[in-house]
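Hi V.,

Quick status before I head out on leave. The structure for the redesign project is tokenized and pasted below; the design run finished overnight.
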């Protein structure tokens, strides 16, 4: 609703320079498209609101999937036109939307539409007019354009993509939810994630740079997918308990993979105390990284080549693998080799997306759009006795609508 207000003001404003008017309107179009992306993936047919209103009208009908996606793609196609947004992420305004962020989200939308339509698990995608192949081709073109023409890159090492000290100049981040220093209410990283620590009288959930309240935990079957030599394991998974006793820090190994923790969005080193309050965390939340662009591009290459890897696909995914292996090289990690045309399969790619992008906003939608949600639940080492998966669980209900 707020994006619609900004769009309306920009359309009517005669007091703005044209460049400023276009930039602000395109930023709002991006945010509206981004919001509707999650709405349509999780709820399916939802009310489509493109006009400014003071309060929500509960009598609005639900639009079809086709109508929602048409609006999303129109918004992003408009925002992606050269000259309307800044080309790259600006170091002086790192939280603003760039043209390549719009193109990246547009590529993700086309990929999402294609895979949903291909899997056939959610009703309504068959009414999208483009064929599955046409949608994969559109996604491929947007993502390839970013790879060939933008200055985004994989930062090295993997941890640099998330470290607070690197966030303003992070060349991997196409778009993030930005949290600045000292802002109250930004304790998301410690509420949801964090490692475990025993401070012997000091509550490390609140004060330990590495720790948090741990409302989300890794599943053992996922932890086991990391190969020896993959540095992402060391950043994403905590396999030891942190102990602070009389000013002395130590770590004790956790042997049970079902009892590990998630330190990915940490505040500092494992043996540091926070210098600021609990609700003043500076972690950005990544929405779209260059690694995701590369992996989505690889997926389109596989799909457009009937499931067989191409040289382009192998080249781009191995950029991700080689960064994950750094500072080691392939000969140092025989259990974690580069992919080849023969070893790069769709299943391998999906597993790679999980290891690379874990705890970012992608995994569930990956399972939904590819029709693999029930398979993932069945193969998970975590078994909820209340789970009785049905096909309609691919979408959330809209209560009392």
């Amino acid at each position: 609703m707020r994006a619609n207000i900004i769009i309306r003001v920009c359309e009517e404003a005669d007091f703005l320079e044209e460049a400023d008017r276009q930039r602000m309107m395109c930023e709002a179009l991006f945010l509206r498209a981004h919001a509707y992306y999650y709405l349509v993936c999780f709820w399916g047919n939802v009310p489509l609101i493109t006009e400014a209103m003071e309060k929500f009208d509960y009598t609005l009908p639900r639009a079809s999937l086709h109508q929602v996606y048409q609006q999303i793609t129109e918004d992003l196609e408009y925002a992606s036109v050269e000259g309307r947004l800044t080309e790259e992420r600006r170091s002086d305004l790192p939280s603003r939307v760039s043209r390549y962020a719009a193109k990246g989200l547009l590529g993700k939308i086309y990929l999402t539409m294609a895979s949903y339509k291909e899997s056939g698990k959610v009703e309504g995608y068959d009414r999208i007019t483009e064929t599955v192949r046409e949608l994969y081709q559109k996604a491929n073109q947007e993502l390839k354009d970013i790879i060939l023409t933008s200055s985004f890159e994989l930062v090295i090492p993997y941890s640099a993509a998330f470290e607070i000290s690197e966030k303003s100049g992070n060349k991997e981040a196409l778009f993030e939810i930005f949290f600045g220093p000292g802002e109250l209410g930004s304790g998301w990283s410690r509420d949801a994630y964090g490692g475990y620590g025993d401070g012997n009288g000091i509550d490390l959930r609140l004060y330990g740079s590495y720790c948090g309240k741990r409302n989300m935990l890794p599943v053992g079957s996922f932890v086991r997918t990391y190969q020896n030599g993959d540095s992402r394991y060391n950043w994403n998974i905590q396999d030891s308990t942190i102990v602070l006793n009389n000013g002395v820090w130590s770590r004790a190994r956790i042997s049970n993979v079902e009892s590990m923790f998630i330190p990915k969005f940490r505040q500092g080193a494992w043996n540091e105390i926070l210098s600021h309050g609990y609700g003043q965390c500076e972690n950005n939340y990544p929405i779209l990284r260059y690694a995701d662009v590369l992996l989505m591009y690889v997926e389109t290459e596989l799909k457009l080549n009937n499931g067989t890897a191409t040289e382009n696909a192998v080249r781009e995914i191995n950029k991700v693998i080689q960064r994950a292996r750094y500072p080691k090289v392939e000969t140092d990690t025989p259990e974690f080799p580069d992919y080849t045309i023969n070893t790069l399969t769709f299943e391998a790619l999906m597993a790679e997306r999980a290891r690379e992008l874990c705890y970012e906003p992608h995994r569930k939608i990956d399972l939904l759009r590819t029709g693999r949600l029930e398979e993932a639940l069945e193969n998970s080492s975590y078994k909820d006795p209340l789970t009785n998966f049905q096909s309609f669980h691919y979408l959330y209900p809209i209560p009392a609508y």
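Above is the designed sequence. The chain is about 40% helix and 5% strand.

G. will cover questions while I'm gone.

Best,
W.
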